[in-house]
Design a protein that fits this description.
Blueprint: H1 16-29, H2 39-63, H3 69-80, E1 86-87, H4 88-94, H5 99-111, E2 115-119, E3 127-131, H6 133-154, H7 159-180
Antiparallel strand pairs: 1-3, 2-3
Length: 181
C-alpha cells in the first residue's frame, strides 16, 4: 500500500537542463507555436494534455468492452455500495458526470441489462439502482483488464514520485477550490 506524507512543502525541482528538455518535448507534443508564458502555464498545459491522452486511451479501452468510462464508473460505485442499494440521485451525485448525463448513463446500463431500477419502498418517488448478475459479470470482465492497464500505464513509477504527484494534485485541487469559492 502506498503511503505518503501530506506535507504542503515545496516540491523538488528538477535540474534546469532536464526542465528545458521537458518543456521542449511538451511544446512539440501540444504543437504550441510560441514560448510558454512561464513554468506555471507549462505545468497546467502538461496536466491538461496528460488528461486528454488518458481520456483518449480510456475511450478506446472501454469501447473494446462495449461500455464507456462513465458506465464503468457507475458499475464500480454500485459494487462498492452493494450492501446498500443506492438511490438514483445518490449514484448521480457520485458519478463524474452532471446529473442530467447520469440519467442517460443509468438508462444505457439498464438497456444493457447491467442494472435494474426499483421503486424505493420507503419513498415511492425515488428509484434504487441495483447491479444485476450480468452487470456484476461485466464489471468483473472490465475491472480485471482495467487494473492491468493501470499497472502498465504507471509502469515502475517509484512510490516517492507517486507521493509527490498526489501531494501536488491535492494542493492544486485545494487552490482551485479556493479560487472558485
Amino acid at each position: 500500500m502506498l503511503t505518503y506524507q501530506m506535507s504542503r512543502g515545496p516540491l523538488p525541482t528538477p535540474r534546469k537542463s532536464h526542465l528545458e528538455a521537458d518543456l521542449v518535448r511538451l511544446k512539440r507534443e501540444i504543437a504550441l507555436n510560441r514560448e510558454f508564458v512561464g513554468e506555471s502555464e507549462a505545468l497546467l498545459l502538461s496536466v491538461a494534455w496528460t488528461w486528454s491522452c488518458m481520456e483518449r486511451m480510456g475511450r478506446s479501452f472501454f469501447a473494446s468492452f462495449g461500455t464507456t468510462d462513465a458506465q464503468f464508473n457507475a458499475l464500480m460505485i454500485l459494487w462498492d455500495y452493494r450492501a446498500r442499494p443506492m438511490k438514483q440521485h445518490e449514484l448521480a451525485d457520485l458519478l463524474v458526470v452532471n446529473r442530467a448525463s447520469a440519467g442517460g448513463v443509468i438508462d444505457r446500463l439498464q438497456r444493457n441489462g447491467w442494472v435494474q431500477r426499483k421503486v424505493d419502498a420507503e419513498d415511492r418517488r425515488a428509484l434504487r439502482v441495483h447491479l444485476t448478475d450480468d452487470g456484476i459479470a461485466k464489471l468483473k470482465e472490465v475491472r480485471t483488464a482495467y487494473y492491468k492497464l493501470l499497472s502498465a500505464a504507471l509502469g515502475d513509477t517509484d512510490p516517492a514520485t507517486l507521493a509527490t504527484v498526489l501531494r501536488f494534485n491535492d494542493a492544486l485541487r485545494a487552490r482551485l477550490g479556493a479560487l472558485s469559492a
